[in-house]
Design brief:
By secondary structure, the chain is of the alpha+beta class. The protein has helices at 42-47, 50-53, 69-81, 126-129, 189-195, 243-249; strands spanning 2-5, 27-32, 37-40, 90-95, 98-109, 115-124, 147-152, 155-160, 164-170, 173-178, 182-185, 201-205, 208-211, 215-221, 224-229, 235-237. It is 16% helix and 37% strand.
Length: 262
Amino acid sequence: MTSVAASPTANATAVPPPLALDRLDVGVVQLDAQRHVVAMNEFARRVLPVEARQPFERMVLSFHPERSQPKVLHLLDQAAECPVANPPPMAMIINIPERVLLIKVTRMAGADRQGTGYVLVFYDITETVSAGDGAPPLAGARRQLLKLPTVAEQKIVLVDAEAVLCIRSDGHYTRVVTAQATRFCNLAIGDLETRLDPELFLRVHRTHIVNLRAVAELQRSDGRLALRLHGQPETVPVSRSSQADVLARFGLPSAAAAPRQG
C-alpha cells in the first residue's frame, strides 16, 4: 500500500447549539384519516405552492416530490403505529421550490381513541441553513447549504458545513461525521451533493461525500484508492470512476491511481 499525505484540515468548530425553533413561524397542515389535506394555516399557504398544486382533498403524498414521498409516508406510519411516541422532527428538502423544512406529524383521535386524522407541523429553516440573500433562487439553481440539519437527542442540531469531515449514505438518509460526533441527517446523499459547495465537497463514492480539506492521506491498495481523514480510524472508499477527479483535486496525475508495474 502506498499513501500520499494531504494538507491539514481547518480546525473543527465546537459542538453546535440546537436550533431555536421558538423563534420561527409554524406551518400547520390538517389531514383526514385517509391522509388527504383538509386545511392549513396561513403560514403554510405562504410557504407551500398551494395555488399551483391545489392540494385540498388530495392525498398528502401527491403534494411532495417523488424523492421525498417515502420519508413522508414513514413519518405518517410512525404516527399511526405509535401515537404516544415522540420521534424527532424530520428534515427534508422540498422541491417547491427548494426548501428545507423540519416536519413533525401527530395522529389525532376521538373520544373512542379511533383515529380521525393527522396534524402535520413544519418549520421553514431554509434561510437559517442556506447561503444567499433571501431572494428566491434562479430557475434551476439551488441554494448551497451552509449548515446541515442533524438529529441529536430529540433536538435538531445545525452543523456548520465546514466542520463536516464526510457524509455517509444510510438508505434514504445520511450520517454526518464531524471531529466530535456522527449525527443522523434526514437528507439523502443525492440532495446534499447538489446543495454543498463543490469547491469544498466531493462525492467520491455512491455512499460517501468528503470534505477535501479533511483528507489527510490518499492510500492505494491493489489499484483501489481510499482516503484517510484527519482523526478518523476508517478510510473512505473512492470509486474507480471518481479516482481521476480525486487525484486532480490534489494536483496529482491520474497515473497515481494505477497499480505499479514490475
